[in-house]
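tl;dr need the bound structure. longer version: we got a ligand (SKM) that a collaborator sent over and nobodys looked at where it sits. i said id run it. heres the input, straight from their email, havent touched it
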Amino acid sequence: MLSAHQNIFLIGPMGAGKTTVGRLLAQTLAKTFLDSDREIETRTGASIPLIFELEGEAGFRAREKAMIDELTRRDGVVLATGGGAILDPDNRRALAGRGLVVYLETSVDEQLRRTARDENRPLLRTADPRGRLEELLRIRAPLYREIADLTVNTDGLLGRRVAAMIGTHLASL
Ligand SMILES: Nc1ncnc2c1ncn2[C@@H]1O[C@H](COP(=O)(O)OP(=O)(O)OP(=O)(O)O)[C@@H](O)[C@H]1O
Ligand SMILES: O=C(O)C1=C[C@@H](O)[C@@H](O)[C@H](O)C1
Ligand SMILES: [Mg+2]
């Protein structure tokens, strides 16, 4: 049985549905929903693309690291992380040690479909988004797998269905 204090951390690539599924799952479990990307934007008053422009990816990663450390210390939350949060070993330790980690696995085809109309992801502002997503996944998939307690393939599934599948799994613990 899942305790009220248990944290759920969603990891996975851009377009995996961490934000979408996280919000639904938090409702189902009556937990607080947090999103590290959104929290960074709210506190800085700047969009992620603007942060990348002004401070580079390194600047964004430093902000993300401080945010992951802070948010994973909370209690009873569903936290949607940024797609690259798992790159940092301290972030991986914080996520693995302070909650149950759910990896939303998604094919590059599906990621492309889901992110096509969205300009908010600086790493996809390239002539070859497919190549970029493939390269990111090659580097990151082992890191997602390394800390995942549960992996859900989201291809062809509505966010609602993914949230329900995770809820069912958690109820069986
Ligand atoms: N299971 C799903 N089926 C269909 N569309 C989805 C699904 N999950 C998310 N989407 C859509 O895909 C887009 C991206 O989803 P979302 O923002 O939740 O991804 P994310 O994992 O949080 O990405 P990021 O790492 O960039 O924050 C949204 O427009 C959302 O409505
Ligand atoms: O995959 C990534 O590295 C990113 C994913 C988004 O969630 C944001 O954190 C940002 O656009 C970088
Ligand atoms: Mg998100």
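gonna send this back to them w/ a short note. Residues 18-19, 35, 37, 80 surround magnesium ion (ligand 3) (CB under 6 Å).
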